[in-house]
Amino acid sequence: GPPFPVFTRQEVACHHSDADRVWVTYGSDVFDVTDFLELHPGGKSKILLAAGGALEPFWALYAMHKQEHVLEILQSYKVGELSPEEPPQPSVGDPYAEDPPRHPALKINTLKPFNAEPPSEVIAENYLTPSPFFFKRNHLPVPLVDPAAYRLHVQDACGRTLSLSLRDLKRSFRKHDVVATVQCAGNRRAEMNALQSTNRLGWGIGAISTACWGGVLLRDVLVHAGYQPGDEGHVCFEGLDRDQSGTVYGASIPLKKAMNPEGDVLLAYEMNGEELPRDHGFPLRVVVPGTVGARSVKWLTRISVGPEESKSHWQRKDYKGFSPAVTWDTVDFSKAPSIQEMPVQSAITEPSPDASVTPGELTVKGYAWSGGGRNVIRVDVSLDGGKSWREAELTGEEQLPGRAWAWKLWQLKASVPTGTKQLNIVCKAVDSSYNEQPDTVGPIWNILGVLNNAWHRVRISVGE
Ligand code: HEM
Ligand code: MTE
Ligand code: MO
Fold first, then answer.
1. Which CATH superfamily is domain 107-335 in?
2. ipTM of the complex
3. What is the CATH code of the structural domain delimited by 6-82?
4. Mean pLDDT, contiguous 10-residue spans, the chain (464 residues)
5. What are the respective helix, strand and coil percentages of the chain, to the nearest 5?
6. Which of 87, 175, 347, 354 could form a disulfide with 456 if both were Cys (CB 3.0 to 4.6 A apart)?
């Protein structure tokens, strides 16, 4: 095509609002992203921060934009190039320089922010996931917190703010241990993306892990702050991770869940008997058993109670479920409730799709879990794509009825007859309410790529 028109940075700067069109630069290219504002998964207000200027300082923080599928979207809005006389943008320091070291076995989905999951074969090796292999889902850089200076701010029932040190928390409240599985709403999004792209982070089957969390009950802290069991409302949490515009990670849960003596919501300072690792929220995080991972706010700095849910982007504009018919043009975020309890889930961790399987003895392994404290009562496994089924053997700790916060691991020993060319392994779990998983992804596909709990399928060609 014809060469693009050339602009100065000053000309680009004139396009900084809807009315003047919104232009941004990246490298030496100029883009008119006005038509993308409403479609942006991170929200319109975020792009407006960069309006009229360079994306680089923002994308240094939200570095998951530096992926092919995002850059392709950007390219489609190109309207020009910067004049070669324009000096390049000064390079920005790496906001992720203080992130902790991680285990090299993790499969990285995005490096900055750090989003990674354990390899499939590792997931079901341990009932309690060793912390280095526990999936990590960060939206921002990991904050560096001095535990001596750390304070938890709790807004009390009279509107005052209590300030609690770690020592206060450990001294004033009884310690509880809760074994709970944490699952991201985006677990298994890659299978949704394979059907139709959601333009969002592709997770495999590993955005789920289980730990023994040690800490104090949120309920005890709320009672100390003057709240009563029958009170209505939402408990809002804020993390210490924030971006240049001061946006902090935040989320909320119903007060009823927090105050429920059988809800087991924890403010955790230990994970698997050790100090909470930095990636998992050091020095203090929320763990909301049975509830989507997004509400288990890490690096917790503030708790407040109010009539409304958290105003955070991640409470209001993300982590909601929509009909497959809803598009970015028609989505109305106020129409869907925030995801809290999760549906029944299971996946095959072994054999992995690229494993070499030969006729003879075969062990199929996996995990199964359901939200809301519902126990997994059964896992059915098929080797022929769902024509015939067998029941898997379940393992896991005994859990109280209605408080089954942790997954079940399962396995099935099968024999693969000689002459078998292909195995089409399928699993599906049933929870204590007899909820079952849908058989395919199509009918539950959604623009955010959340809540994928379709039957998990692994196709394997059998060698000689
Ligand atoms: C998410 C595109 C500008 C902040 C995303 C995603 C895309 C995208 C495709 C989804 C990524 C994924 O989940 O894998 C773009 C384009 C931009 C732009 C084409 C060009 C103007 C910005 C700017 C900011 C920003 C300037 C910040 C100031 C975010 C945030 C998310 C996001 C906060 C959500 C991330 C999360 O789920 O944690 N953007 N973006 N974006 N973007 Fe942008
Ligand atoms: N809390 C803060 N402060 N910042 C975050 O980015 N991510 C949330 C939640 N808590 C997040 C957070 C999401 S989406 C999930 S799934 C879980 O943390 C992941 O917890 P993990 O990293 O310990 O596995
Ligand atoms: Mo998540």
1. Oxidoreductase, molybdopterin-binding domain (3.90.420.10)
2. 0.91
3. 3.10.120.10
4. 92 94 96 95 91 93 89 97 88 90 96 96 97 97 97 97 98 98 98 92 96 98 96 96 89 98 98 98 98 98 98 94 94 96 98 92 98 98 97 96 98 95 97 98 97 97 88
5. 20, 30, 50
6. 347
